[in-house]
Structure formats: C-alpha cells, structure tokens
C-alpha cells in the first residue's frame, strides 16, 4: 500500500478525505497533522482526534501544527464548515490525545525515517509544509510524492482569483511551490467536477449508520442549490487523497505555478502557465467523474461494513 501522511484542517471535505485514506486497503495512513484553516487549530485538531476514534484507527498518530499563517492574520472558513468545522456532525469526545510532537517535526521525522516511501498530501493551508521545508529542505526530495488540494488555473472561491487554501497562507504556498519537488496541484478546476449530487447522495444513503452519521451530513452541509453550476457540494479534499491511489482517474498537465502574494485583487492566486519551459507542478485538469465516485463509494462501503 501507499504510505500516506495527511496534513489537514478538518473541515467537512477533509473529514471525507480522511475516511477515504483510512478505508482504502491500498493506502496505509501513517500520520495526520493538523493546521489552522477552515476553523481554528484547536478545532481542526479536536475533529481529527474525534474522527480517529469514531473510525477506529487509534494507532495513527495525530500531531497539531501551526495555528495560523506564516505572516498574515488568521481567517477561517467557519461560514462554510460550521463553527465546529464539521457542520452539524457531532462526534463523541476523543479519549486519546495528540502526540507531544509538533506537526512540523512529525512531518520531517516521518519522511526522513523512510526516504522515498511517504506520499504527503496537504488539504489545508500550507503553513506546516512550508515550515517543515524551511527546517529540513531535503523532505522535498525524500517524499515519494506531494499532492495538494489548493489553487486553480481559472477561478477562486475565497476571492474571485484565489482558492481558500492558498489565500489563507500565500507566503507558505510560495515556499512550497518553489521547493525541490514537483507539486501535484488538485485545484478547483478539478475538484468542482467532484460534486456529491443527489444521485451520489442517494447511493451513499444505503451505507447505513456511517452514511447517516458522517458521510451524508458532511457532503451536504453547505450545498446551495441556488448557486449556478452547483449540482452538489464539491468534495475537494477527497480528490487529493484519491489521486495518490487512483491517478488513472485524473488528467494532468505540467505547468509553472507561481503564487501571487502582493496583488491588490489577486493575492493568493495560483498563476498557472501551461506553456512554461520550467514547470514545477502537475496540474489536474479533468476527472473521470463516474470512475471517481465508483472508487469512493466502494471504499466508503467497505468502511461501513466494518
Ligand atoms: C478547500 O478549502 C477548504 O475550505 C476545504 O476544506 C478545501 O480544502 C477548498 O477550497
Ligand atoms: Ca481542507
């Protein structure tokens, strides 16, 4: 199986991504690190701990990381994910705690312990990853792959130009894209193709308690049928985990991605040049939508049957 380390800010779709990473037998979840993003670090960490116990993988270490961006003031997305970060899902209090290790050190330790084997996936602001790169630049070469949910080559969601995870900490994103690895960017262009529409939700509803308690509420909490082009809520972060196990479901193109950090209207924008002679990223463009849902539903059904 692919050893996967997930840096996240749960977060409705982060929680769904965690469920996929846990449930796919071709993925071995080796660690979870948390960052402040959708909600404050305290809440993203609590959510990760609660999900770990609810889904029964107590041995996977959870380490808390950066509470806010490198230089800017913290701005959350509680208007999307709810005050807790998990919408209206209420999970039992966790009994197990975080490791005593900071997420930045956990990332470095896990990757350097077995170079070339850890697939690093980031589904929140890139603060922890940037700090880890500054402390140990070699992780860029030692990670087996690095995939983010973030950015876009067309439009934003936090602003007209910027996607939330990049907008939340553009300075960190710039460090991450400039590091000695090739970033796989699963941005909005891709993830807006992964909308949990009513057909998907109806199939998920057959999965019993896991669907009632977790999958359906997480996948529908902020769906707004009045937004044009929204057939269902997009499960952004699930796509980034799916890419590690099922890259065959994604069309990608090499590109140069630079991060705008000073634009009046464009701060946090990923400037994507598909014609650049010096690409630093693989940008996902097209999803095999039916293949994606077949894969996700199979994994979720497996967890539901546990
Ligand atoms: C990204 O922003 C967050 O709100 C989601 O969890 C996802 O990682 C989508 O832009
Ligand atoms: Ca996220």
Automatic annotation (TrEMBL):
Alphabetical UniProt keywords: Glycosidase, Hydrolase
Gene Ontology CC: cytosol
GO molecular function terms noted in the UniProt entry: purine nucleosidase activity
Keyword Electron transport annotated: no
Domain Inosine/uridine-preferring nucleoside hydrolase per the UniProt entry, residue ranges: 5-294
BP GO annotations: purine nucleoside catabolic process
Record's protein name: Purine nucleosidase
């Amino acid at each position: 199986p692919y050893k996967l380390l997930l840096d996240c800010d749960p977060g409705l779709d982060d929680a769904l991504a965690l469920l996929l990473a846990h449930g796919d037998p071709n993925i071995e979840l080796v660690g979870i690190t948390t960052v402040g993003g959708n909600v404050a670090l305290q809440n993203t960490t609590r959510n990760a701990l609660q999900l770990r116990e609810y889904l029964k993988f107590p041995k996977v270490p959870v380490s808390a990381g950066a509470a806010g961006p490198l230089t800017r003031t913290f701005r959350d997305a509680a208007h999307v994910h709810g005050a807790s970060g998990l919408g209206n899902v209420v999970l039992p209090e966790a009994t197990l705690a975080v490791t005593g290790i900071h997420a930045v050190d956990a990332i470095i330790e896990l990757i350097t312990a077995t170079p070339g084997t850890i697939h690093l996936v980031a589904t929140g602001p890139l603060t922890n990853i940037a700090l880890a790169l500054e402390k140990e630049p070699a992780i860029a070469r030692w990670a087996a792959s690095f995939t983010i949910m973030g950015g876009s080559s067309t439009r934003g969601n936090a602003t007209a130009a910027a996607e939330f995870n990049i907008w939340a900490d553009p300075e960190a994103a710039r460090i991450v894209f400039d590091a000695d690895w090739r970033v796989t960017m699963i941005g909005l262009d891709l993830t807006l193709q992964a909308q949990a529409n009513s057909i998907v939700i109806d199939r998920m509803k057959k999965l019993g308690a896991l669907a009632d308690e977790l999958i359906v509420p997480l996948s529908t909490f902020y769906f707004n049928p009045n937004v044009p082009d929204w057939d269902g809520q997009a499960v952004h972060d699930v796509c980034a985990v799916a890419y590690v196990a099922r890259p065959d479901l994604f069309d990608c193109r090499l590109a140069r991605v630079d991060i705008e950090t000073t634009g009046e209207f464009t701060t946090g924008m990923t400037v994507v040049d598909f014609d650049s002679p010096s690409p630093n990223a693989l940008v996902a463009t097209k999803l095999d939508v039916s293949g994606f849902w077949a894969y996700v539903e199979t994994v979720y059904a497996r967890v539901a049957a546990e």
